[in-house]
Specification:
The chain is an all-alpha fold. It contains three helices and no strands.
C-alpha cells in the first residue's frame, strides 16, 4: 500500500518539475497522440468496410476511434485551460514562471 503512495508522489514530483510552467506540452502531447490513434482506427475501420472485409458492427474500431478522438480533444482543451490557470496564478502573485539563476554583464 505504501509503495503505491510513493510511486504516485514520484509521478507528481516529476510532472511538476517538468510541466509546471507548460502544462499544454503534456496534455497537448497526450491529446495529439490520442487524436492520431483515433484517426488511424477510423481509417482502418473504413478500409475494412470499403473492401468488404468486415462490417462496421463486427469490429470495435469505430467505437475506439470515436472514443480516442473525443479523449484527444478533451486533453488538448484541458491543456489550454491548465495553461490559462497557470498564467493567471503567476500574474496574480506577480511572479515569473521561471527563475533567473544568475545575471551576466548587467551593471
Amino acid at each position: 500500500y505504501r509503495v503505491f503512495k510513493v510511486i504516485l508522489d514520484l509521478i507528481v514530483i516529476k510532472f511538476l518539475e517538468k510541466y509546471a510552467t507548460r502544462p499544454i506540452h503534456f496534455f497537448g502531447g497526450m491529446g495529439f497522440i490520442s487524436l492520431f490513434l483515433g484517426v488511424v482506427a477510423g481509417l482502418i475501420s473504413l478500409f475494412l468496410r470499403i473492401f468488404s472485409i468486415k462490417y462496421l458492427v463486427e469490429t470495435p474500431l469505430p467505437i475506439f476511434s470515436a472514443l480516442l478522438i473525443i479523449v484527444g480533444v478533451q486533453l488538448v482543451a484541458l491543456g489550454v485551460v491548465a495553461e490559462m490557470i497557470m498564467r493567471t496564478h503567476y500574474e496574480a502573485h506577480d511572479k515569473m514562471p521561471y527563475l533567473i539563476k544568475s545575471k551576466i554583464n548587467i551593471d
